[in-house]
Structures are given as C-alpha cells and as structure tokens.
Automatic annotation (TrEMBL):
Alphabetical keyword list: Membrane, Transmembrane, Transmembrane helix
Superkingdom classification of source: Bacteria
Entry's transmembrane regions: 15-48, 96-114
High-level lineage: Bacteria, Candidatus Nealsoniibacteriota
This protein's name: Major facilitator superfamily (MFS) profile domain-containing protein
C-alpha cells in the first residue's frame, strides 16, 4: 500500500521513538540478541521516516528535482552529525539510558505533533 509522506514520517518517528525508549529503559537487562532486535526496530522506524522525508521533499519541490535531491543529500548527514555531537555532550550530563529515553520521547512526540500540524 502506498501512504502519504506525512504518514510515513509520523509512523517512522513513532516506531523509532518506541524502540529508543525500550533501549534506554531496559538497558540493565538487555543481552546481545535483545539489543539486536531493538536496534533493528529502531532502524526500520528510521528507514520509514527517512523515506517519507525524501518523498515529502520531492513532492513539495517537484518543479525543482535537482534542488530537492541536493537538500536531501546535504541535510540528512548534517542532522546525523549534529545529533552525534549534541548526544556526545549530553551523555556526560544524563548518561546513556536517559539520553535514549529522552531521545525516544522526542522522536515519538515529533511523530504525533508532526502529523497533527502537517499542512494537507
């Protein structure tokens, strides 16, 4: 089935957020296999959200396909790099478990509010 990009972004963010919360909340009882399953779920959620983002960019900038691809190519790795730097600073303040929990809550809420306030 084909879904609108906004729905993909919303569901992908929620899925990735839930698995991030699980990773942070259950860190003390996790083994290799459970971490593998949680990271697989997190990656699937990220894949859904990222494909929705790319689709939304190409849809909104359909008269400018080269610019759409350039924006997607530039800002996606930039967001990953800035997230890693920010996370590195926050780990010393919050620790790993709380960082994953807060990050997951942030992802989940962005999926909810992003869908609610999306322009249709």
């Amino acid at each position: 089935a084909r879904f609108k990009s906004e729905i993909n972004i919303s569901w992908g963010s929620k899925i990735a957020g839930i698995f991030s919360i699980l990773l942070g909340g259950l860190y003390s009882i996790l083994n290799f296999y459970s971490v593998f399953i949680i990271m697989l779920g997190n990656s699937i959620g990220g894949l859904i959200a990222d494909s929705g983002r790319s689709g939304l960019l190409s849809q909104k900038l359909k008269n400018y396909p080269e610019e759409s691809a350039a924006v997607d190519t530039v800002f996606s790795p930039l967001a990953t790099a800035l997230g890693a730097v920010t996370g590195g600073f926050l780990i010393s303040l919050l620790g790993y478990p709380l960082l994953f929990i807060f990050g997951g809550i942030s992802l989940f809420l962005s999926g909810i509010f992003g869908k609610k306030f999306a322009k249709t």
